[in-house]
Amino acid sequence: MAGTTEDTSALDRARDVIVKYGFIAVTIVLFLYFAATEPAFATSSSLFSMLKFVSVTAILGLGVMFTMVVGGLDLSIGSVAGLAVQMAAMTMVFYNMTGATAVGVVLLAGVLVGLINAFLIVVCKIPDLLATLGMMFVIQGAKLIPVSGQSVTSGMVLRDGSEAPGRFTQGFLQIDRGFVGPIPLPVLIMLVLVIASWFFLSRTTWGRVMYAIGANPEAARLTGVRVGYYRGLAYVISGVLASVGGLILVSRIGQGDVNAGASSLLEAVAVALVGRSVLGQGKPNAWGTLLGAVLIAIVLTGLTMKGFQYYHQDTAKGAVLILALIFSYTLSRKKIRYTSAT
Amino acid sequence: MRNSKVLLAGLLGASVFAMSACSQGGTADDDPSGDAGTTADAGEGSADEGETTSASAEAPAPFDEAVNIAIVQNSGQGDYFQQYLNGTRQQVEALGGELAVFDAQGDNATQASQLDQAIAASPDGIIVRHGFPDTLCPGVNKAIEQGIPVIIYDVEIQECAPEAIQTQQSDVEMASLVLDQMVEDIGSDQNVGYVNVAGIAPLDRRDAVWQDYKAENNWTELFKTGTYTNSSATDTAPMVSNALKANPDVAAIYAPYDELTKGTLSALEQNPDLEGKVKVYGADISTADIELMKAEGSPWVATGATDPNAIGAAVVRTLALHMAGELQETKVEFPPILITADFLRENDVNNMEDLRAAEPALNIADVSSADWIPSVTF
Predict the structure, then answer these.
(1) How far from A240 is each of A36, A94, A273, B194, CA to CA, in Å?
(2) Do B96 and B151 belong together in one domain?
């Protein structure tokens, strides 16, 4: 942060304030506006359902954020969430295993996809965007091979003519439907992951090294950092976070769903990008990603309550993203770069 | 380095917009012709403007003042769903209410969240249209617990929410009407073909009726084929065509979903030697379907159908009765009618509007009606 306050002109100072707090102010103003005009907006059940709505996007956004920190981007994140939906449904419905097993299988699948991504990017030296784009298609298709493209439901007829033996366990369904006190479980999971991500990136050596790699991989390499190892680690973390998001999704849907996760990628990328501009940091960060997700939830919920259609909402989402990019790139006097955390 | 980051972000921004533009298409495969059906104002553009009969009695509470109704729909894309929403909207307005539309665009997790949001806004009544029972049951049960009247359309919701009110078009009746016609046309002891897919609730209900008729009339099913995809008609056609090449000796084919019926028709076109030998019995109706049935020498002789506009309105009337505490049933079915190609030709029906004029029964105005409900007809 130092270095940005040396300039003393009032205009520049004002600009700094806008860059630093502008996005938070936009969020608060929008919140107050919707709360004042739509009585149902600010009730606690409405707020919790809003946070619950956005929990998956926020968690996937964290995954994207990790890969952005090391200067990459994970385009396979939505399809990994979809893979998680499929794996969880198959584990419980086809193989009649417990919910805990399903969670384990799904998380392992996330690690595995992360490792494959890491292999393609670090060992095969394929650019991040292209490698993860390829993986996106592979996963989207491959997850449907064992089920012939059908959504997995309890009691469905299998290929050999018998009925699927298992069903979703009640415990597993609590991942999305459970509460801790008044707080929905997915909201709690989201908050825990945000705090853990923040701590990891800002308070541990690993996190700082990741930021350093994002800022300048060559310099990082010259100082003796194992760049490939950390970049790979970011993709594994991303895969695991995508799996957690997928677990919430499938527990929300309550059965397999071939389309689940497909729409998540763009929103996840958008919130991670919005997150970069928060507090004038200009670098991907966990709290910003959360705020980006919350802002999008506020906009979408408010617009829905005001009777706007989804295409208006898509427009609004895009406008939010553009606004964030303006804060990051246009208004900020600080050069956009990845520096180690403050 | 900085430049490449800027470039990357710009590229991303661009692709986010480009791709979200693509995703507007949703998952529906129907021809999205009536483009104004889902706009906030009813009756705009190409949507069918209904006529409202005025109520003859004082409305009970809560209809003595404006009511807020929410519809939580799985998908709004396609001609059928736009007509449905149009009917819903006009009936809500006739009742002096306001309609909030939650459209999950085919995303089931979103639909669950939107049902939550709809409940959180505590409306006077909620309509839930299509989706998975396992996804919707927690929300539906929560709404019932909170005393919000809910009507569910075309979801087997009572499996997991036994107190919920389930509505659907009567698929049993739809299949029976068409198959009665088929019995009349071809008689018993015939070879027949069957185009259907398993695992989709309304098609499964039609399948049960088919099995009964097949056994009763001693029909021999020479083939069963068909697939349900984003382009069912196109993907089903080659399957039926191959089945026909292997089993050309069928008198009739039953394909109880109009995309499957269309696939069957194009399969027959690819087998010109069968022309005039095979009759096709289908389901559903739309302006495009009417054209196909009326075409010179069309093998599609009969279909069973409802009018999505009328269904959308009837669901609202059912909800209104429920809100006023006057609904007795927990399951309401909307009756379809039989439409034959001969009827279309005789009455010179060229589109849905003509059809409604020729067959007022499509309006099902007497279903879930009451003297205090002004009902909308199309």
Answers:
(1) 39, 23, 20, 46
(2) yes
Secondary structure in 3-state letters for A142-159: HCCHHHCCCCCCCCCECC
Distance CA A163, CA A169 (A): 17
The answer to whether A271 faces chain B, any CB pair under 8 Å, is no
With 0-12 CB in 10 A as exposed, 13-18 as middle and 19+ as buried, what is B310? Answer: buried
| B328 and B249 co-located in one domain | no
CA-to-CA distance for A218 and B151, rounded, in angstroms? 62
Asked if residues B90 and B130 have their Cβ atoms less than 8 Å apart, the reply is no
User: Are B123 and B187 part of one and the same domain?
Assistant: no
Instruction: Write the pLDDT tens digit of every residue in B106-158.
Output: 889 999 999 998 998 889 999 999 998 999 999 999 999 999 999 999 888 98
Please name the residues between 174 and 203 in chain B that touch chain A, using a CB distance below 8 Å: 198-199
Average pLDDT over residues A38-45: 83
pLDDT at position A271 over 60: yes
Continuous H helices in chain A: 10-37, 44-69, 77-89, 99-118, 128-142, 170-177, 185-203, 205-215, 217-222, 227-253, 264-277, 286-305, 310-325
A101, A106, A104, A89: which is closest to A151 by C-alpha? A89
CB A131 within 8 A of CB A114: no
B301 and B247 within one domain? yes
Structural element, H or E, at residue B67: strand B67-73
Cα A121 from Cα B62, distance rounded (Å):
62
The pTM assigned to this predicted structure is: 0.78
Q: Is A260 on the interface with B (CB under 8 A)?
A: yes
Show residues of chain B in contact with A45, CB under 8 Å: 119-120
Same domain, B91 and B182: no
Lowest mean pLDDT: which of A21-25, A164-168, B147-151? A21-25
Residues 202-231, chain B, touching A (beta carbon < 8 A): 229
User: What's the CATH code of the domain at B73?
Assistant: 3.40.50.2300
Residue for token digits 């006077």? B124
Considering the domain delimited by A10-154+165-331, tell me its CATH architecture. Orthogonal Bundle (1.10)
Q: Does A329 touch chain B (CB under 8 A)?
A: yes
Q: Residues of B with CB below 8 A from A255's CB?
A: 132, 134-135
- For chain B, positions 98-137, list CB contacts with chain A under 8 A: 98, 100-103, 105-110, 112-114, 116-117, 119-122, 132, 134-135, 137
Question: Nearest CB to A177: which of B12, B103, B138?
Answer: B138
Which amino acid is located at A108 in the chain?
Answer: L
Task: Please tell me whether residues B299 and B176 are part of one structural domain.
Answer: yes
pLDDT digits (tens, 9 = 90+) for A312-342: 888 888 888 888 888 777 776 655 444 444 3
Q: Is B374 helix (H, G, I), strand (E, B) or coil?
A: coil
| B256 within 8 A of B280, measured Cβ to Cβ | no
- Domain check: are B133 and B235 in the same one? no
Q: Which residue has the tokens 């089920």?
A: A147
- The answer to whether residue B38 sits within a structural domain is no
Chain mean pLDDT for chain B = 85
Domain that holds residue B248: 171-305
Residue of B20, B29, B72, B114 to mutate, testing the A interface (most A Cβ within 10 Å of its Cβ): B20
State the complex-level ipTM: 0.80
Tokens of A167: 């069903």
Number of domains in chain B: 2
Identify whether residues B178 and B301 lie together within a single domain. Answer: yes
Residue A339 touches chain B, beta carbons under 8 Å: no
DSSP string, A299-313: HHHHHHHTT--HHHH
CA distance A116 to chain B (A): 23
The verdict on residue B193 lying in a domain is yes
Please state the rounded mean pLDDT for residues A196-216: 94
